[in-house]
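so im writing up the methods section and need the SIR2-like domain-containing protein record in one place, dumping it here so i stop losing it
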Amino acid sequence: MTVETTRARNVVDEVRSWAGSDAMAALLALVERAGTDDDAPWLHLNEQLPVWLVKLLADTDGASSDPTIQLVDSLIALERRAADSFNFRSRDGSTYRERSEAVEADFDDATRARIVEYTATLGLVEATPPAHDTYDMTLILGGGFRSPLLRTRYAALLERQGIGLGDVYLLGSPRFLITNDPAERPVTSQYAPGAVDEFDLMVAAATSEFGLSPQPMTFLCGCASVSLICPSWRHRDSIGAAEVPPEYTHERSTSLTLSDGRVWGSAISASTSRPPYRPDTSDTLELLVRHADPTPGQRVLLVTTQVFVPFQRFDGLRRLYLPHGLNVDAVGFGADWGDRPQTAEYLLQETLSAIRSARRLLVDAVAILLSHAGHPVQAPPADNR
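--- predicted struct ---
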């Protein structure tokens, strides 16, 4: 068994354990809506399943009898059901809303309490401590409102507690601040006055919580401004590219220095692989690998909010562990930090996010296993998310 197939097998085992857990089955049974439409949209935004996988799943006499392919099939079935019952951002599968714009459900108090119980078992509720004392690299994941500030504060707390963070990167994006109700700027102006996007929030958070000085921003893509679509943007021919804001096509970096001028870390901002929508965690992790050039076997700590730990761990496994051999640990702080609401709707929505991330990870792992077994498959391109 090769190193690549060993990692793929580890991924398969982790996804099987999480998605096939009793807590997941109980959660779906608790809230699944009656009369679910099997033909309703379920893939996220512009996503597509790879052609080779569609053919395998349709092959009732061949590879579809393999237990790993059956796991993919069952996870897709789970995602179909969860997309109908856990989705409070986009009921029609295509309308795009940010998390803060999600709608509410009419759950009674008993149902809400059970949702918290089951999602706690799935890893979305209780704060996760680091598994190790030292890391080669720490990635503070971006977000909106107070998330950048609190995640950076949590990383600073871990450092004070003796956790070696290694090289630190704050992962932002060019996502514009939300102006709808609730608007971000009344919140973000308290620590990032003048910020226009998520990247600005990450830089301001590093300044606030670590006392760092940001250096002039540089374009990793080689451009001079964000006013025009980047000529080096790899997804300019993708569906939706004609509607993408030019800001979403550039890659940026800012070095963060200590008072003596030494570089302590950096903030980076990725371009999008899913036009016309903003970059996501996976985009930023892909840029991080190209920017930092890590070594297989290094320990990487992802710092986020606990409700996002399962889905962002799966993203980390897909982008960092599976192709590059980086050992990923994801940690988060609980609802008592006041970052995200611990509501039933929010927990269900992020369970769906984790299911989708687990499916993407599993598909890539299966592609590796089948390829090494001699099957003519190809891993899905990065923009099929």
